[in-house]
């Protein structure tokens, strides 16, 4: 009796050990050897702008971005020039000092806004492992409004022309195709054209990107403004469009009700609703060119 | 009866430990690929490729983490993982193969064919790879190169950048194997 049990145990042992050796392919054994570093989610968004505002994305260290963000629109009087009656372009340059920290500045032609920003990626989403499920980026922008006709700030002296935008950008890449972002925003303006108008604004942006092909995605963004201007009627900014990524060039096409490109301007002074009446809809075209100043070297073992 | 069984147990145990000794592992294998076109030359290297070699059956397995390929341009690396290789779905490329006519007793350099299956981007293809095998000090070095056709592995390249990426990619590899201790 004892012998039998012993024999069965022995058979089991042999079966067990043979399956251990032969039932497992070499590849499966290799998998056990792999070290699992935290894997940070790449490309929550492909571009540093979602549609209107900034996305959580920062560029890798040593990359300079040169961008031309344009808005084209027609006005009811129709003074057709090239392509459209009016065009406004923000020419911008930004440089990534580290993988997390970027600084940039730009000039917008139509509303004469000079702006500069600092952007820092505070938390990175991890796709494998149990660290952060979110990416959080901080943005501090300041802008100077030099065109008195198109400013909601007083333009008497230099400090009056300044506005400051602070954003906490919170995003998550849910699937390989879908990313969403929430952007709580605080805008402080140094002055106002009317005493009724607030100089501190609170806004919340919500936006997302859905990838429809390898290099194509649809993006949309909406900014809710909690305390708008009192002296003029303004609307919340909305945009919907298509992003197309080429090698070093990224193109964004969208429709929006906001003609302004600087954060504080499109959030607070969008004067049109989103509808198709002439002069209410703006065609946006952002072209971003990426220049690498640093060449990565693979780590030598 | 008990004695026989014990003997069998001992023998299988013995065989197992022998198995372990006939295994070699490379933890920092190097795989580099090249794409040469008239528009641009692209080169990316992965220095953290794992491979196991089993002399009992003259078998070899390689596992390549796609994210670990380093490109000179950071954005290119992002595109490579996100749009071309889809590394989130297919994180690894693998190779499993048999070394044909390998003779471990030969101390000199020998060139052999490794015949097996290469899996890239979720697609498996039969592949024969000519490999130079040499003993240098205590390590066993496998090196060589081969070509692979991008279209075979269903890697989608949009027409607008088709000129920038070669139809055939040259792959170069070098593995230094050490005895495997479990």
Short structural summary:
The complex is a heterodimer of chains A (301) and B (182). With 301 residues, chain A is mainly beta. Chain A has three helices and 14 strands.
Distance between the termini of chain B: 33 Å
Order of helices and strands of chain B: HEEEHEEEEE
Number of strands of chain A: 14
* Rough outline of chain A: elongated
The whole-angstrom Rg of chain B is 20 Å
How large is the share of residues in beta strands of chain A? 35-45%
Number of helices of chain B: 2
**Poorly predicted runs of 5 or more residues of chain B:** 13-20
Number of helices of chain A: 3
Order of secondary-structure elements of chain A: HHEEEEEEEEEEEEEHE
Assembly of the depicted chains: heterodimer
Distance between the termini of chain A: 59 Å
Please outline the major beta sheet of chain B.
Answer: 8 strands, antiparallel, barrel
Largest interface: A-B, 45 and 53 residues
Mean pLDDT of chain B: 85
List the strand order in the largest sheet of chain B.
1-2-3-4-5-6-7-8
User: What is the mean predicted local confidence, pLDDT of chain A?
Assistant: 87
The helix content of chain B is 10-25%
Structural class of chain A: mainly beta
**Largest sheet entry of chain A:** 12 strands, antiparallel, barrel
Cα-atom Rg of chain A, whole angstroms?
26 Å
